[in-house]
Amino acid sequence: MSTYTDRPWLALYGDQPVDYDIEFDNALDMFRAGVERDPDGTALTYFDGNISRRELDELSDGLAAGLLANGFSPGDRLAVYLQNVPQFVIAMVATWKAGGVMVSINPMSRKRELSYLLKDSGATVLVSLEALYDEVAREVVPDTDVRLVLTTSELEFQTRNDERLFAGTTRQRHEGTTDLSEFIGEHRGQVPPPVELASGDVAFLTYTSGTTGVPKGAMNTHRNVVFTAQVYRDWTHAGRDGAIFGVAPLFHITGLIGHVAVSLLVPAPLVLAYRFEPQVVLDALLEHRPTFTIGAITALNAMLGAPGFTKDHFSSFTSVYSGGAAISPTAEKAFLEATGIQVHNAYGLTETTSPMTATPFGSPSPVDPTSGALSVGVPAPNTVVHIQDDDGQDLPLGEVGEIVADGPQVVAGYWGKPEETAANLPGGALRSGDVGFMNPEGWVFIVDRKKDMINASGYKVWPREVEDVLAEHPAVRESAVVGVPDEKRGETVKAFVSLKAGADATAEELIAHCKERMAAYKYPRQIELIDELPKTVTGKILRRELRDQPPGG
Questions:
Q1: Last residue of some domain: 197, 222, 252?
Q2: CA torsion through residues 81, 82, 86, 92, sign
Q3: Residue 221 located in a structural domain
Q4: Of 242, 188, 248, whose CA–CA distance to 58 is shortest?
Q5: What is the CATH number of the domain that holds 470?
Q6: Which of 169, 197, 225 is the last residue of a domain?
Q7: Number of domains in the chain
Q8: Is residue 94 part of a domain?
């Protein structure tokens, strides 16, 4: 019988590398090598604006020099609270040049979420969109360690100002903040002193809810970043034929690696379009003719359904991958019929710095005849994927258990949380919390989730966080939150709520309560009021029973 250490999937690699050396000691050296190879080539395209690699180097030098002049020290954290704009990449590279750690924050985070992330990371610098500072960060920053706020606008680095995205957007100056472009301008031409970055140093913190309700900062190291950038280049052909299009949000691990890091490595142009709006994205595809992207299948499907879509929108692509949300065989077939492009699967977590498995380019994933699941690929180079029981013992190939990954993409741990690190990363291998199996040929299939995490359009939602917000409403006695199927989002958030005796509240009122306090992808789209939540004899709420019951029942 085949075992995991036999690595039965090796025969499936085709011309993809099986094992290889990590080419750079750190992600900054990776960036500098790209600049040296193609200094005048385009690094970033943003609507009608372009930034060359030489210019990106100069802008990030100026920002790094300014940070150091204002007290930033090696190991300090800089948080970015931005959409998909060039300033995100400038800030990332500058942070490394200053010897620091970038903290990527979801721009949909609201006050309570932003406050937690800034405090937990101990960030001393915040780079924020002006509107997000005004709406959210202004009231949060005074209670954190942030001592320098650099604000910027989505209108920078382009002149088109597409009305579909930027209608009514104006520049704003806020007391206590410094304009990012002016800050860089003051220090442009300066070169920060050389910095020593080891492969094990943290490149950025990416926050995940993981296996508890408390967000944890995954410590993605420079070694993690360089390795997974290589995987994208070699296995998915990212950037090998032309520009990369940034469909995924850059704050997310898919965007950080599958867009930014691989574009720095190849090097290849990265095309950005602020945020995902299907019609805007389709226009950008025709204008810039990218050759690679990776994004949630829900985003890809939204483009197929947008007005005016034709096969020509994808005619420049040689490689399209889906990550962040499960893709069904039906969706795979529909995408192929609509675009003429075979969409490939990739699977990973924040803690695996994007892919732990991927479908080798040009090799369609098989469908499991029993479950009907589409494979998420085979283990990446230098990576061993195990299927284990609850005691951490390997199960025979074909049996269902928890997916565990061991390889150079697995993070060093969780920021400031040694107990969670020990529990979820025993011996340096990641217990994913996802349940699946590997067939004798080495293809990995996900059949369920071990935990109660909800995956809505590729975004992960932890039920407890939603329940905590519901508990803030004076009429709520208790609640249970589950994920339910949704045609557009794959899965959406539903809450079952029981009210206090004599209290009154409608489902619409409770949804509005959550919407005010949570990122848009988190708040429940459905709320069902019930008298009592099902529980065990010890009082534990039975989420599965609620999830499996028919609507209204």
A1: 197
A2: positive
A3: no
A4: 188
A5: 3.30.300.30
A6: 197
A7: 2
A8: yes
CATH number assigned to the domain comprising residue 143: 3.40.50.980
pTM, entire model: 0.84
Residue 534's identity, in one-letter code, is P
Q: Which of 310, 261, 266, 246 has its CA nearest to residue 83?
A: 246
DSSP string, 154-192: TTTT-S---HHHHTT------TT-EEHHHHHHHHTT--P
Q: Which helix (H) or strand (E) holds 149?
A: strand 148-152
Residue 535 structural domain: 454-548
Cα separation values, 156 from 130, 161, 180, Å: 11, 9, 10
Q: CA angle, 459 as apex, 457 and 461 as ends, to 5°?
A: 115
DSSP string computed for 287-306: HH---EEEE-HHHHHHHHTS
β-pair partners for 50: 45
Q: What are phi and psi of 117, to 5 degrees?
A: -65, -40
- Rg over alpha carbons for the chain, rounded to the nearest Å, is 23
The DSSP bridge pattern shows strands 292-295 and 319-322 to be parallel
* 328 within some domain: no
Residue listed under structure tokens 């209290």: 503
- Residue 43 inside a domain? The answer is no
HSE, CB side, 13 Å, CA atoms: give it for residue 538. Answer: 1
Q: Which of 229, 285, 284, 279 is nearest to 253 (CA)?
A: 229
Of 533, 406, 465, 536, whose CA–CA distance to 212 is shortest? 465
- pLDDT (tens place) for every residue of the chain, 553 residues total: 456 777 776 766 666 677 779 999 999 999 999 999 999 999 999 999 999 999 999 999 999 999 999 999 999 999 999 999 999 999 999 999 999 999 999 999 999 999 999 999 999 999 999 999 999 999 999 999 999 999 999 999 999 999 999 998 999 999 999 999 999 999 999 999 999 999 999 999 999 864 446 789 999 999 999 999 999 999 999 999 999 999 999 999 999 999 999 999 999 999 999 999 999 999 999 999 999 999 988 789 889 989 999 999 999 999 999 987 667 787 888 899 999 999 999 999 999 999 999 998 988 889 888 777 889 999 999 999 999 998 999 999 999 899 999 999 999 999 999 999 999 999 999 999 888 899 988 999 987 666 677 888 888 787 767 887 898 898 998 888 899 988 888 889 999 998 988 899 999 999 999 999 989 999 999 999 999 888 643 345 777 788 777 655 5
